[in-house]
Amino acid sequence: MPALLPPQDEIAALISRHAPRTGDYATAIGHLTFHRQSSVTESLFHAARPSVAIIAQGAKDVTLGTDTFHYSRMQYLLTSVDLPVQVRVVEASVDKPHLCVVLGIDIADVAALLDSESTSGGAQQKILPAARGISVSDVSPDLLDAMLRLVRLLDKPAEIAALAPLIRRELTYRLLNGPVGGRLRHMALASSQSHQVAQAIDWIKRHYAQPLRIEHLAGMANMSMSSLHHHFKAITAMTPMQYQKLLRLQEARRLMLVEQIDAGTAGYRVGYASESQFSREYSRQFGRAPMRDVGQVRAQLSGAGASASADLAYSILP
Fold first, then answer.
1. Which of 42, 157, 165 has its CA nearest to residue 113?
2. Under the phi-then-psi rule, with left for phi > 0, alpha for psi from -120 to 50, and beta for the rest, what region is 287?
3. Which of 44, 123, 271, 293 is least enclosed, having the fewest CB within 10 Å?
């Protein structure tokens, strides 16, 4: 009988087996994905959704606004709200690739668990004020054990339907009661500023191509304009206007890459009336004029395979 691996080595081995080459891999378990990278990368723009990402091997930097979050082996990144970020793998090689498992989090599931705790008289963790929607912490043995049991289910597909929801609930519980769980709790409470900001973010996502009026956004979120501005920036590291602009530019880039439309059409579809303004803001954000940038990205992807191309098509928009 082969020797049992330590949990941290077993989860790395499982990820490596299910993600045999560089790329992103969906699994038979909903919202569970694996990521493998065999070299360090440049910063890539990415739409981060509520999720927990555990690094089993290697290291990564995630930049939100002017803040950079570094996490490495047996640390996790908790994202509590939809955020446009930049991601860079900073530790990876062919012999020791970067290996990561990501599980999406449904904030409604978090709220349901909080209701259950309240009804049963469970202990309440201190609620933090509005803070960054991204945080890093060490993986506890209990959290690792739950994630490992979830990943093992991929080798027992007949058990996924019955057991995966139970383990997902346990993982949510472990996160809520972990060192940064207060942020997740705050996001799920309907009366909190974080929840109100999340409503504002959802509105911007759904109407990103429309003109943004802050007074309307504040009213929809049931906040004053000054309170919305303060708490929105605390969570996202940007103003509502900056958030909308970044969404527009990321979506325009996706349209040009995936749907292969020209820059003028892409700019118009995401809400720009002026092609020159779109080109100017795009160049400032991505460092190159639209079509030149898209051409270089396509050249980089030419030998990367379908999984890398699909990752670029992933959008923060509904």
1. 165
2. left
3. 123
Work out whether the CA dihedral 124, 128, 129, 132 comes out positive or negative.
negative
Tell me: the pLDDT tens digits for 3-15?
Answer: 589 999 999 999 9
- Identify the band that residue 309 occupies on the pLDDT scale cut at 50, 70 and 90: very low
What contacts 15, CB < 8 A, 6 or more positions away?
34, 36, 56, 57, 99, 100, 101, 151
Q: Which of 191, 167, 166, 194 is nearest to 181 (CA)?
A: 194
Do 76 and 136 form a contact (C-beta atoms < 8 A)? yes
**Per-residue pLDDT tens digits for 159-186:** 999 999 999 999 999 999 999 888 888 8
Q: What is the dihedral of CA 144, 145, 146, 152, to 10 degrees?
A: 110
Whole-angstrom Cα distance, residue 87 to residue 46? 7
Residue 20, token pair as written in the block: 């045999």
Closest to 82 in 3D by CA, of 198, 231, 233, 222? 198
**Residue recorded with tokens 């047996």:** 74
Q: What are 144's two structure tokens?
A: 């690792």
CA 192, chain centre distance (Å): 21
Token look-up 């070299």 returns 39
Pull the structure tokens for residue 169: 């609930």
